[in-house]
Design brief:
The structure is a homodimer of 215-residue chains. Chain A has 2 domains: 10-69, Homeodomain-like (Arc Repressor Mutant, subunit A, Orthogonal Bundle); 74-212, Tetracycline Repressor, domain 2 (Orthogonal Bundle), CATH 1.10.357. Chain A is 70% helix and 0% strand. Chain A contains 10 helices and no strands. Chain A has helices at 10-34, 37-44, 48-54, 58-70, 86-103, 105-116, 123-146, 155-171, 173-180, 186-203. In chain A, helix 5 (86-103) runs parallel beside helix 8 (155-171) and helix 8 (155-171) runs antiparallel to helix 10 (186-203). The longest helix of chain A has 25 residues, at 10-34. Chain A is globular, with a radius of gyration of 20 Å. Chain A starts with 9 loop residues before the first helix and ends in a 12-residue tail after the last helix. The interface between A and B is large, with 56 and 56 residues. Chain A binds a DNA duplex (30 and 30 nucleotides) through helix 1 and helix 3.
DNA sequence: CAATTTCCTGACCACTTAGTCACTTTTTAC
DNA sequence: GTAAAAAGTGACTAAGTGGTCAGGAAATTG
């Protein structure tokens, strides 16, 4: 939730946060082209010109908001080493990602839209930090496999599948709500997490840790 | 690929198809608001007014295209009964859905965008055919579980996870391509399918059928 | 208190957009 | 062949868009 620019002018800082929050809500609901600066202004309860004062353009605001969002992707899994336990590390990672889907569904949707449209503003990020992160995690998973601590699976696809399932609960909430006949509450997310942890870990030949076991 | 209106005027039918194909391409790339009727006209190599002649409005064209797309979701899994083999039925379903992701990525992206934005044009579909389909499939999965033919999992979440993973390969292709450094070819989809079948089936306590086993 | 920087905004503009309309051309039907 | 229906289209309109700008208010600093 932090932005790197001038935290000095406390008035400006506060307004920027208010604008970023309004932008997240609006962009998540209507997409980049579908959202007008006026809508964001209404949501933030500020005149339109004020938005353009803090962020030089609609695109500038969008990019600033995207950077904010990307920081949510950090998790305990970033620090995992090959000494850690595969089952617990993966289960925790799944749980972390499920938590983000529950607490920041709008951010997840914006990210999804961005990637759907070819990730025009994320390609730079993808080909730098993201690739490096991926290589590191894949290496650790491969070590675990070499050591016989989990079933041989392709780590790349395994991570894709974890992302797909966890983000699905944020991105496709409309479909999920329709099919369930009710929205996903905290308890439902916990149950979904248990189901997913069981599925993925069993699929990797791992035993589900105590704390993710069913009641 | 069929639309219900006048298939008589072969000129009109052909043009409608050309327009629908152009619309699918454009909407998948730029979204509903991000696509102008003029862009679709250029793509279809027809004057803009001609588009509005066949489809009374941009929204009308969009809805017609959505209906076209929904028919792609049919699969062999629709006809599965409790007498069928769980492992083979699920594996085939996963493979079918992966095939659609490979052959119709644009359709998948449009569906994803629609759901992301709250599924305004699909809510009716969701609360009718889709719910019925879901209840039927859930019932069969529960029978398989009662009969001890697969691990007890919540069928609802299992289906969510299958959709999430299979559609991910179409919807998030930009991210996948960036991280792999190359696009997914036919062989890559086949490998992803094998990986996913293994993950899901193992997660359900099922044995992977011969035809989806690794080389 | 004065000066300077930050903050704020109404009026306005250039441009794009979906959709209409009057009209012509082509195809079909008898 | 001719009438009627379908197909096709250029010119236009009304509404909404992102963004500019000139000028003023408020806060900060010395």
């Amino acid at each position: 939730m932090a932005s790197k620019s001038k935290m000095d002018g406390s008035i400006g800082a506060k307004n920027k946060q208010k604008i970023l929050a309004a932008a997240e809500k609006a962009f998540a609901t209507y997409g980049f082209k579908g959202t007008s600066v006026q809508q964001i202004a209404d949501e933030a309860e500020l005149p339109k010109t004020n938005i353009l004062y803090y962020f030089k353009s609609k695109q500038g605001l969008y990019v600033a908001m995207l950077q904010d969002i990307m920081s949510l992707w950090n998790s305990r899994f970033d620090q995992v080493t090959e000494e850690d336990d595969p089952a617990e590390s993966l289960a925790d990672y799944i749980a972390d990602k499920m938590t983000v889907s529950r607490t920041h569904p709008q951010a997840s949707k914006i990210f999804a839209m961005e990637v759907l449209n070819g990730a025009p503003y994320l390609n730079k990020f993808f080909s730098n930090e993201h690739v490096a992160w991926m290589e590191g995690r894949v290496a650790i998973l491969n070590r675990w496999i070499e050591q016989g601590r989990m079933t041989p699976v392709d780590p790349l696809y395994l991570l894709f599948h974890i992302w797909a399932c966890t983000q699905h609960y944020a991105d496709f909430s409309a479909q999920i709500t329709s099919l369930r006949g009710k929205t996903m509450k905290r308890a439902d997310f916990d149950e979904a997490t248990r189901q997913l942890v069981q599925l993925i870990l069993s699929g990797c030949g791992l035993t589900v840790p105590e704390k993710y076991a069913e009641l």
